[in-house]
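Lab meeting minutes (informal)
Scribe: AK
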Amino acid sequence: MREAVAWAKGEDVEARTVKVRVPSSVDVGAVRHKLGLTQTQFADAFGFTASSVRNWEQGHRSPEGAARVLLTVIARKPKAVLDALREEGLLDRA
């Protein structure tokens, strides 16, 4: 906790290495349905292509490593992802 507070204050802290366990699968359709979005809306909101979302949901393809991690975060904290994208100027208002 001290390191987190120090880092938040802009102080130098020793970097620690962590390893993310990539989930073996993500039910993209369930994530999307939970958010009440169409495939196109979901793709647009989170930076995927509509064809990727469609292929994942139809079982023709599976999301790869980083996409599975992002989808897992979206499933749990979609607002946090959207807020981060907005803060970086990466979220367009349609």
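Next up, CB showed the second protein from the same session:
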Amino acid sequence: MGSEAYNQSALDRKKIEMLFGDVKHNLGLTRLRLRGLTGARDEFHLVAIIQNLRRLAKLTAIPPPGRMLA
């Protein structure tokens, strides 16, 4: 359990699990609404696009100018 490969695998799993948790908690995707494999894949792709757009908005947002102290 203490090997370098295990530690890297744990970090990778944590990243993925955090994304799934975000989808379930913040986006409300507790179950898939569309039927069939293609419907589930399409719905999951839409959720992934939403997550990526939210992430892009956070990364590219320009913070409001702070108050200048004179």
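CB comment: The longest helix spans residues 36-60.
No objections, moving on.
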